[in-house]
Amino acid sequence: MENHQMIYRSTRGSHITATPSGAILQGLAPDGGLFVPDRIPEYPGTLDRLTQQSYKEVALEVMGLFLTDYTKEELKHCIDSAYDSKFDIPEITRLKEADGVWYLELFHGATIAFKDMALSILPHLMTTAAKKNGVTDEIVILTATSGDTGKAAMAGFADVPGTKIIVFYPKGGVSAVQEKQMVTQRGKNVHVAGINGNFDDAQTAVKNIFGDAKMKEKMARAGKRFSSANSINIGRLVPQIVYYFYAYGQLAKAGRIQTGDSINVVVPTGNFGNILASYYAKRMGLPIGKLICASNENRVLVDFFHTGVYDRNRDFILTTSPSMDILISSNLERLVYAAAGEDAAATLGLMQRLSGEGVYEIPEQMRRTLQAFYADCASQQQTSDEIRRVYNAAGYVIDPHTAVASDVCRRYQEQSKDRKATVIASTASPYKFARTVVTAIRPELAGQSDFELIDALKEISGVRIPQAVEDIRTAPVLHDTVIDAADMEDEIARWLGI
C-alpha cells in the first residue's frame, strides 16, 4: 500500500526475516524471537484528518503502513469483515468522559474485551496471508490465555475453513464469566483445556511447543502448521495501534484538544502488547506524552521500569484483575529490542538470562530510552476502592483492569501535576467481572450468585446486559478437559490426531 515494502525481523536474530503476511502466518520467529518491523513508519497524514475519519478509515491507513504486502482491497476486505455487526456500537469503540479523564471503551465486540479489537481481524489477515503465500497446510492456532484472548480468538476462528484453534487457560485463574465464555464455545475446529498451573506455565509451554523441532516435523507430515493468536503475533499488535490514532481524532473532533496537543495514555498492562501498540503510535508521530503502564500486585513491569531489572522470581498472585496476572510479559521483548538499538544479539542474551535464571538487567543507556514510560501498580483494595470512587463521582462503572489504570492515573496526576488530556484504555466490560465490580460498589450483595450479580449490575450501571453474557446463562459446557502444563503437547497431538 506504500512504496516501502516492510520487512519483519526476529528480535533474536536480525538475519531471520519475513514479509508482513509471512510474519503473521508464522506468529513466532523460528529462533523463538518476536517479529518486529524493520522501521516504524511515520504517520503520513495531517492529524486534522483523523477528526474526519471513521474507525475503519483510520484502520485502513494505519495498518496499511505496516502490512505492505497486502493490497488496499485485501486489507479493506479484512477490515470490513472484522468491524461489522459483531460490535454493539457502529463506531466500534468510543470515548467516555468521566471524572476528568477519557475512558476508551474497547469492549464493544462479541466477547466484551479489548482483545476483540485485534482478534476480530486476525483470522481474515491470516487466511489472506495463507493464500498470498501459497500455503495449503491447515493452520493450527495455539494460544495460552490469561482470560480474554482465548475466548476472543476462539470466537474469531470458530469454523473458519483451513484452521483449527487450541486454547489453554489457568484453571481457577480466570473469572467465572471468562471461564464460562470459553468452555461453552461452539465450533468443530475449537478445543479448550484448563491447566493446573498459572498463565506463565501455559505461555512458556506454548512457546516451547512452537520451538520443538520434532513436533514441527510431526505437524508437517500431517499437513498442519502452528501459528499464534497471542499478541506475540504481529497481526495482533498492528490492529491495536489503530485505536490510539482514532481516540486522538475523536478528542480533537470533540474540541477537547487542539490537533498537535500532546495527550497521555494509561494502559492496564499484563503481556505488554496493548501499551506497546501505544508506544508504536507515539513513534509514528502521534502526540503522546507519557505512556503510563499500570500493573496489579504482580508488579514485575513496575519494578523493571523503576530499576532496569526484570525479575520473574517472585510469588505469582491471583488477583481480581486476572488478565494482568502475568510475570513473563512477552511483548516487553519488542521494547527491549528497540531500547537496545535493535541489537538482536543483545536481546537474545537478555532473553536467555530470563529463561535460565529468571532475571536480567538492562544497562543505563537502554534505560534512558524508556523515559517515555511511567509505571505504577494498584493493590486489590485500591482497585476495589477505585471502582467505587469512580461510580460515586461520575456514575460510571468500570471493570477491575480499567480500575487499576484509573487508580494509577489519578496518583500520577497528583504527584506530577501533569494535566494533559488523558485517555485510559478501558479493556473489558464490567459485566465480565460482575462479582468484583458489584461487591466493590454494594458490598452487601456479596452473597448473591454470579448471575444475580449480573442482574444487579444492570440496575447499578443502567447499561443493558451484553449479548455475550446473556448467551452463557444457559449455554451447555462443551469443553471440560483439565490437564497439567507438562501434558499440553500430548493433548494437542491427541486432539489433532497426529
Describe this structure in words.
With 498 residues, the chain is of the alpha/beta class. The protein has a domain at 94-113 and 235-466: Rossmann fold. Helix content is 45%, strand content 16%. The protein is built from 22 helices and 16 strands. The chain has helices at residues 20-26, 47-50, 55-66, 72-82, 115-119, 122-132, 149-157, 176-183, 199-210, 213-221, 234-253, 273-283, 300-307, 332-339, 344-357, 364-368, 380-394, 400-416, 434-441, 450-461, 467-473, 488-496; strands at 8-10, 13-18, 35-37, 94-98, 101-105, 138-144, 163-170, 190-196, 224-227, 263-268, 288-295, 309-311, 359-361, 373-377, 422-426, 481-484. The strands form four sheets. Strands 4-5-15-10-11-14 form a six-stranded mixed sheet, with helices on both faces. A five-stranded parallel sheet has the order 9-6-7-8-16, sandwiched between helices. A hairpin with a 2-residue loop joins strand 1 (8-10) and strand 2. Helix 1 (20-26) crosses helix 6, helix 3 (55-66) packs across helix 11 (234-253) and helix 19 (434-441) crosses helix 20. It is globular and about 60 Å long. The two termini are 40 Å apart. The model has no long low-confidence stretch (mean pLDDT 96).
